Structures are given as structure tokens and as C-alpha cells.
Amino acid sequence: VGLRLAGNALSDREIIRFCTELKKNGYAPNLEYEEIDDDPTEFACNDEARLRQCLCSLADGETINPHLCNDEIWLTRASTTAELCAQQPTTPSAENSAGCSLDLLQRDGYFVAPRLFPQWRDSGIGSGYHSIEELAATMDRLDLAGWPPVFCFMCDAVWDLIATRLWDEMRLLLGDDCVLEPSVFAWSLKTSQQATGSDGQIGQSFGLPHRDYPASEAMFDDGKTPKLLNVWIPVNDATLDNGCMYILPREFDDNFIHPENYAHMRSATTVKGAEVSKLRFALNGSRAVPAPAGSLLSWCGNTVHWGGRCSQHSASPPRKSIAMTFRRRDVAQLEGAGAPITQVEASAMSSNMRLALVARSLLLYNQWHLLKRDVVPSLIYNVSST
């Protein structure tokens, strides 16, 4: 039996999972690949194949891109203590809120901690701070220069947040030695009017309801304790009109802990030849989750969720956000997921390591976007062998 997967039918992560399941059931998938020149700096002529090969070579560490890594566009301006002294965060301590967050995760499959990250320390300046407004401005600057929003992970401001304030929160939820999965993403939505003709554009909402992981990978056998947690941070206010998240609470999800059910990883599927989707969950149980800038949204990996679109009538700018996944260190590494990132490694991520992570993430999530020639500036191809 032959199976042909064309274009973006499956992401790289889904292909790995698909082939793993075939092997478990006694099948030996015969995968055919395009012939690629031995020189990792030479790419195919086909636009999509060319970009994919370039991203693969960066993600696998076969090439580096010093010109891109040293570009000044990634630099962010931190504010001094004096500039922010009147704006110090007044959020409750992580120790006091962690218990409540865990209770909500067990009950609903998600929680929201509002305005948790208005600012955080700049690791490069002893008395400096980054702010969530600064990060939003940085993402705007990248957008104007043609870089997809996920390239904000090239910037110090993002990693200073991840390696300090965010890690402190996740440690209380997943244990002191929790790790970061080697995949990240970011969004900078366009209004419905701006997005006309841009289907598949990188950085637009993942609008089809989905689970990122089956319950068997996301939860322990007790059905309550998470092995891993998705993290989503709005960089500006996420409102009902500008594209906030939508989540299906556990009480309305009949398949929350039933990975054996056909509908578990098919909570929604597109109908071929029509602009509609087939839903396999109670839509009237879903919740819109607006959240102010700098909030922490986290959900179990098997929680159904999706992103809204931005209305052209929104009074707020289109939603911007970043996301990543943390997991417990004592949980077996997911097959094909790549080596996890420790807190020490996150605090010392070189530009080459950041670019490899961004390239890997563009490939992992490519079922949501098209890898066309013009989605990334041509500087991406200026690589050299390691």
C-alpha cells in the first residue's frame, strides 16, 4: 500500500508520530526523499524545497548564518530602574498562586494569571528592565522588516523573560528541574482586511481547534497530573475582537483523557472542498479567554484550544503573542522532539542556537503555514557550513 503525503498535509512532528505508530504496529514505512546535494549551503531551485532545505540545515546545525545572527535588528532597548520604578509589578508571589493554578489545571485543563510579566530584568544590564511594551514594539519592527514573528526569539528580551520570571513560575508547576521543549512560536495577527489573500501566512492564528499532544503524552495515568504544559503569553492585550484564545474546559471535553478514541486527536477537521470544519466536541462549552498584555496562560497539552482572528473593527491593535512548552524532567523525552533546553542553557543561548531553534520551529508547525519564497527575507540563505 502506498501513501503519498503532499505539501503541508502533515507537520514534521506529525510525520514522526505517524511513522512511529506504523512501526509499533509492525509496519516498516518506506520513506522516499528528494535527492539533496551533499553541500548543505546549496539549495534546490523550487521555492518551498529551497526554504525547507535551508531551515533543515540550520535546525540540524549543519550550517550557520553569521550575517543574520549579527544583524542589529535583534537588539532591544532595556529601560533603567529609574524609568520603571513607578511601574513595578504588583502581582501575587508565585508561591501563593501556584497552588491555585494547579487546582485550575486539574479542574479545567487551563489557567490564566493576569499581568504577571509587565517587565523583567535585562541580563545584560544590571539595573535594566525589559517591558512587555518593548517586546511588542520589537515584533512590530520585525514585521516591517519582513521577518515572521517567531524571529522575536532571536532577541535577548524574550530569553531574559523565559530564563528568569517564566521559569520560576513553571518550576512551581512542573518541578525544580523542568525543561523547555525545543519548539517555540509567535504570532502577530493581521485584521481580516489586511489578511485578505494571505492564507497560510506565518504568524496568523492557528484557527482550527486542536490538541497539541494526546493525553498519553501530556498526562500521567491519574488523569490529573500534567507531564507537560503549554505556555502562551499575550504581548499586547488579547481581546474578543483582536484575536484572543479559545479553550474547551475539561468538564465539557468527553475525550480529554481518552487517547484511544478516534475523536481525541481529531477534535476538528476541515471538510475537503468546503470552507467549513467538522467539530467533535461541544462547541457551546468552549470559552473565549481574553487576557491583558503580559499575562500567563497555560494549559495541559491535551486541552483543546485555538486562536481567534482579528476583526478590522477592533479598537485594539491585532493580537501578538509568544508560546512554548515546558515538561517535567523525569518524563521520557518525546521521540523525534530533539534535546530539551535547561534553564542554564536558556540563559546562555547563543545567536546560532536561537536561529537553529527558530528554523526547527518553522518546520515543526508548517502544517499551519506555507513555506514560500517570500515568507522570510533572502538573508536567511546567506549560510556557511559549520
Structure characterization notes:
By secondary structure, this protein is of the alpha+beta class. The protein has helices at residues 12-24, 47-59, 66-69, 81-84, 94-108, 132-144, 156-174, 215-218, 343-347, 351-364, and strands at 63-64, 79-80, 110-113, 119-121, 128-131, 179-188, 228-234, 245-247, 268-270, 277-279, 287-289, 296-300, 305-307, 320-327, 384-385. A hairpin with a 6-residue loop joins β4 (119-121) and β5. α2 (47-59) packs across α10 and α5 crosses α7 (156-174). The model is unreliable at 4-9, 31-37 and 85-90 (pLDDT under 50).
| Classification by helices and strands | alpha+beta
Helix content: 25-40%
General shape = globular
The main sheet orders its strands as 3-12-7-14-6
What distinguishing features does this structure have?
alpha+beta; 5-stranded antiparallel β-sheet; 3-stranded antiparallel β-sheet; globular
Describe the SSE topology.
Layout: H1 12-24, H2 47-59, E1 63-64, H3 66-69, E2 79-80, H4 81-84, H5 94-108, E3 110-113, E4 119-121, E5 128-131, H6 132-144, H7 156-174, E6 179-188, H8 215-218, E7 228-234, E8 245-247, E9 268-270, E10 277-279, E11 287-289, E12 296-300, E13 305-307, E14 320-327, H9 343-347, H10 351-364, E15 384-385
Antiparallel strand pairs: 1-15, 2-5, 3-12, 4-5, 6-14, 7-12, 7-14, 8-11, 8-13, 9-10
Helix pairs in contact: 2-10, 5-7
